[in-house]
Amino acid sequence: MRMDSQKKIVKINVGKRIALVENIPEGLNYSESAPFHLPLFQGWMNLLNMARKSVDIVSSHWDLNHSHPSACQGQQLFEKLLQLTSQNIEIKLVSDVTADSKVLEALRLKGAEVTYMNMTAYNKGRLQSSFWIVDKQHVYIGSAGLDWRSLGQMKELGVIFYNCSCLVLDLQRIFALYSSLKFKSRVPQTWSKRLYGVYDNEKKLQLQLNETKSQAFVSNSPKLFCPKNRSFDIDAIYSVIDDAKQYVYIAVMDYLPISSTSTKRTYWPDLDGKIREALVLRSVKVRLLISFWKETDPLTFNFISSLKAICTEIANCSLKVKFFDLERENACATKEQKNHTFPKLNRNKYMVTDGAAYIGNFDWVGNDFTQNAGTGLVINQADVRNNRSIIKQLKDVFERDWYSPYAKTLQPTKQLNCSSMFKLNLPSHKAAAYNASGIQP
């Protein structure tokens, strides 16, 4: 990129905004007073409608055009992308080489540039990144890939930045790094300077988001994909936990501090150890909200029990864990009902503290960070009491889910009792009003 182009991009913009986007599956019932945010589908369509020059998308999944009744939004998104290819808008897409996608092939035939990354050859991993860049001005990053289920049965969360070319410049370099690996079976020994990070956890972007003073930077994984000045995802997460003074709230689909190979599984202490450090050395309150689904590894309960044991004899040590269970209604459905539905799943992947937030593409599983390609976003804000603060909004979302009837304290031997499901009450106004009353999880 020419230096004069870079200078043009990094000029301070007015009107920088950030918005939380969520996909809430049909049938999830929160109280009327619970916080809700821009629907993911609407946020994505807004970005595509704003596009005038370019759309760059990295996604782990490309399955939008499905015949299932709940896939209509995915089909609309696919049709919009096809429409943009005929409007002289440059479309660049990045996918894992293992993706066998008719959607990608159809877009390629219409003129989109498609790059396939061979993560198996690079690091024995796979691509899990999920972010968009539109017109080098607007950004989406979050848990959802371009899969019709992410717009239907999956509970997803991400953020959209509007008019934030400074952050785009940095994220664009990660996109360029991916694109530079096209047709290559190995990673170069040294990266081009054009791929170096612009901001990191030592040098954060200073900006106003929703009229709130903020700092931000993007991180990357695996470490193999971190050129000079690019923060590794683990280091980004460390910076958020280390800066926490009061609490750390973590919402992930899977929590499994294990590194696995074809022959063995070993303890992976990087994030688990950091949580223990925050609990014991700094008395930071920790809340873990983990999805409970058919693929939940039984060892997850062992690690949770180990974490809980820390606080049994230590003063001012506060750890609570809940499991977010959306499968119970499908597990108790009739055969006829199951034929017309897919299991619902909470796929959120974020952390929020009293001063910062991390939104990423990974669950907290060892192999994800060490082998797979993913991107993270860190935002710091001083005034988190402001309703326009993205930190406060994310905290409110966490507490909404934490106090919902879907969040349960489960034991490893817990069996689903279908008869009890029908006795489950919808969220009470008392539970939903936790934020207004100042009650903490």
From TrEMBL:
PROSITE patterns linked to this entry: PLD
Cross-referenced InterPro entries: Diverse_PLD-related, PLDc_3, PLipase_D/transphosphatidylase
Gene name, Swiss-Prot/TrEMBL: Pld5
Alphabetized SUPFAM superfamilies for the sequence: Phospholipase D/nuclease
UniProt-recorded name of the protein: Inactive phospholipase D5 isoform X2
PLD phosphodiesterase domain ranges (all copies): 123-150
Superkingdom in the source lineage: Eukaryota
Gene3D superfamilies: Endonuclease Chain A
An MF annotation (GO) of this entry: catalytic activity
Organism of provenance: Dipodomys ordii (Ord's kangaroo rat)
Family: Belongs to the phospholipase D family.
